[in-house]
Amino acid sequence: MQTHFTLAQLADPDISATNDILRACVHCGFCTATCPTYVTLGDELDSPRGRIYLMKQMFEADAPATEEVVTHIDRCLSCLSCMTTCPSGVHYQHLVDHGRKHIEETYTRPFMDRMLRSVLAWSIPYPLRFRVMLAGALMARPFRGLFRGRMRAMLDLAPTDLGPPSPVDKPQVFAAGGERKGRVALLNGCAQTVIAPQINESTVRLLTRLGVEVVVAEGMGCCGSLVHHMGKTDQSHAQAAANIDAWLREADRGGLDAIVINTSGCGTQVKDYGFMFREDAAYAEKAARVSALAKDVSEYLVDLNPDIAAFDEAADLKVTYHSACSLQHGQQVRIPPKALLAAAGFTVSEPLEGHLCCGSAGTYNIMQPELAGELRDRKAANIAKTAPDILAAGNVGCMTQLAGAVDAPVVHMVELLDWATGGPKPKALN
Questions:
Q1: Are residues 29 and 82 in contact, defined by beta-carbon separation less than 8 angstroms?
Q2: For 7-106, which CATH superfamily applies?
Q3: Average pLDDT of the chain?
C-alpha cells in the first residue's frame, strides 16, 4: 500500500511503525473472510482492510479521530485472526493499538462511555477493587431485568458467587516436588484471581508435581492488556514496567527458565512488551528480555516434556477444546494444548469455525454486548455439534463468556492436566 507521510511525521516512532505496517498491505482481502465482525455484519469498514483504510487516512492527514473511525475501530475484537490469515505479514495488532491510542488522545467520547471505560480501567486490573465491584453486581443481580445494554451485560457476566482470595496468589515461592527441573515465575492475572482462582491453584500443583519451582513475584500485577486495548497507554506501560521490574528481580536472584502465563490474553500482551518499550532507553532491553521469557503454560509444559500418561477416568470423556484467539492468533500456539490433553487420555475435538472469536475479547462483551452475544451464540452452536462432556480453554475470558451458553462444564486445560496427574477433580465437573 502506498503511503504519504511527511518526514516530520515519520520522525514519530509510532507513525514510522504504522507506515511500515501499511506498506506491507497488498489489499488482497484475505483478512475479511476470517474477521468475526465482517462475517457477522458484512460491512467492509468492519473488516481489517476497511479499518486499515480508515486509519491510513486519519494518520496521513494528522487528523483527530472521527465518529466513523471510532465506531469501526471499537467494533474490532483484536482477535488477530487477520494476522493468521494475512499472506503479507501485516502486523494489524500494532496498527490498531496505535489507532486506539490516537482515539484516546484526540476524540471526546460521550459522557457515559467515558465513565464506563474509566470504571473498568480503575477496577478490573486491581483484584481488590474488582472484588468490590463484583460484590455490588451480586447485590444488583436480582434486578437485572431492569437493565439493558452494557449494564445488563456486566450483570450477566458477573459470577453468581465469590469465594475468598486464594493463598496461592500472594507473593511466595512454591518448592518443586522431588528433583528440581526448572524455575518459573507465574503471572497470576488480575480478574482471574477473583473469578477463577482454581486456575492458578491447578497450575501451581501441576508444575510443582512435575519438578518445577514456581515463584509469584513481589510487585507483579496486571499485564496491562485491558487498558492498552482502550488506548490508555500510559497506564498500560506503567503496569508493564512494574511487572518487568518484578520478574527481572527474580531472574537475577534465582534464575528463571520462563515466565509462565495461563491467561492467553495476558500472554499476548507480555510477549509484546519488547515492542511496547522499543523506544524507552531505560526499559527496551529489559522488556525484550521479559518477552523472550514469556510462555503460555502449554508451551512450557511441552518444552518440559513431562511423562503424562493416560489416566482411567479420562477414557470415556470427550473434551472439546476451544482455542482462544489470543493463543491461536496472538501467540500462534495451537498444537500444545490439544497434544497435552490427548496424552492425558481425553478424546479431544475442536468445533467448526474454530478461528472465529467467542466475543469475549477483554471488555468487548461489555462494550459491544450485541455483537459479542451473536459471536457467543455462533460459537456455542458449533461447540454443541461436537457433543462434548467437557469444554476446555486456555483463557479465563473465554471461559466466562461461554460458561452460560454451552451445555457442558467449562474448565481450563491445566485443571484437567492437574487432575490427570494426581490433583483433585475440577470443581466444575462435580
A1: no
A2: Alpha-helical ferredoxin (1.10.1060.10)
A3: 93
